């Protein structure tokens, strides 16, 4: 099984502060994430000046417009250059979701290895086409969508020359209710599109992300915050550094537990196998030349002689040399 790619979603949890952004990078690295992801956008290219906030954004950031909120958290390209360099220096992959073509062009020139497209832009086909022309892998989040919309997005990306796509199943609510997650959609997406499928988790806790691994998710994306009490739209639906590290550790353990699917006795089971399984044992003293019947034998631990599944081979065979009562019958004492 290939290692699950774990993305620490910083998003705008830096609250516009480079100090917080770098601390998030440090926390993601310490937790064992493969990558940390931010959001790169020009507010003017993303939202109208009077766009209303989503309800969860109102709860977490108060009154005002989306424009005002996003502008407050917008980082400059120069700041992203600094964050990319910081990530390179400590050894964690820098990623950022672009929300406009200008930002996508900047990230490509910055040298990102792949592009993540948000669920909100799955139907923004001209944008998908623009990103696909960079010929870099695309992680396509599928929150709020149906199979037809996903198919159209995949088609436009393929037509633009990109065939390296990973879908992310996602429920775009913050936090997402477990009853709305529908993890089996991961299987549906894999079967429908024959593509790798990951999971972008907005639920509270880590159990849903762990379950996603067990049904084949190749990527896990989860929000990371330094403090859930900080002001901002996503902090409350994020994991603390300690929680994120625990999730990563659990994912790595689940990966090991998944194994290769071959059913066999493991090395660690060999000793128990001898102790727990049974041998064919003489129920009474068997004399040389006697013919063995079912009435002459029973089955007891340990498994160091003939096994119970070999019983039909010895019924009717003759004893080569005397076998004592309660002695485990071994092959060399049977005339074949």
TrEMBL record:
SUPFAM superfamilies per record: AFP III-like domain (SSF51269), Aldolase (SSF51569)
Keyword DNA repair: no
The keyword Oxidoreductase is annotated on this UniProt entry: no
Keywords linked to the UniProt accession: Transferase
Any single GO BP term: carbohydrate biosynthetic process
Stretches assigned to the AFP-like domain: 279-336
SMART domains found in the cross-reference section: SAF
Enzyme Commission designation: 2.5.1.56
Domain of life: Bacteria
GO molecular function: N-acetylneuraminate synthase activity; N-acylneuraminate-9-phosphate synthase activity
PANTHER family: N-ACETYLNEURAMINATE SYNTHASE, SIALIC ACID SYNTHASE
Name of the protein this chain belongs to: N-acetylneuraminate synthase
């Amino acid at each position: 099984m290939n290692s699950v790619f774990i993305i620490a979603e910083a998003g705008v949890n830096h609250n516009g502060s480079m100090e917080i952004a770098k601390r998030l990078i440090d926390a993601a690295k310490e937790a064992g994430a493969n990558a940390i992801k931010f959001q790169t956008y020009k507010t003017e290219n993303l939202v109208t000046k009077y766009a209303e906030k989503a309800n969860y954004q109102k709860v977490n950031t108060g009154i005002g417009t989306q424009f005002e909120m996003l502008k407050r958290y917008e980082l400059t390209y120069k700041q992203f250059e600094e964050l990319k360099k910081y990530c390179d220096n400590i050894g964690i992959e820098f990623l950022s979701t672009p929300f406009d073509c200008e930002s996508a062009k900047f990230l490509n020139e910055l040298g990102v290895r792949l592009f993540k497209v948000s669920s909100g832009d799955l139907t923004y086909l001209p944008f998908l086409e623009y990103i696909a022309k960079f010929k870099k892998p695309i992680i396509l989040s599928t929150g709020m969508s149906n199979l037809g919309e996903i198919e159209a997005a995949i088609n436009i990306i393929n037509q633009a020359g990109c065939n390296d796509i990973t879908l992310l199943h996602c429920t775009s609510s913050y936090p997402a209710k477990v009853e709305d997650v529908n993890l089996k959609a991961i299987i549906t997406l894999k079967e429908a599109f024959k593509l790798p499928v990951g999971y972008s988790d907005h639920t509270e806790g880590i159990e849903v992300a762990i379950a996603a691994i067990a049904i084949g998710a190749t990527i896990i994306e989860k929000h990371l915050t330094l403090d859930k009490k900080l002001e901002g739209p996503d902090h409350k639906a994020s994991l603390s550094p300690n929680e994120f590290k625990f999730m990563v550790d659990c994912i790595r353990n689940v990966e090991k537990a998944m194994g290769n699917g071959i059913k066999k006795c493991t090395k660690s089971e060999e000793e128990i196998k001898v102790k727990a399984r049974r041998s064919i044992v003489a129920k009474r003293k068997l004399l040389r030349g006697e013919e063995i019947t079912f009435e002459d034998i029973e089955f007891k631990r340990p498994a160091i002689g003939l096994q119970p599944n070999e019983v039909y081979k010895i019924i009717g065979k003759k004893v080569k040399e005397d076998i004592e009562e309660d002695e485990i019958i071994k092959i060399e004492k049977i005339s074949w």
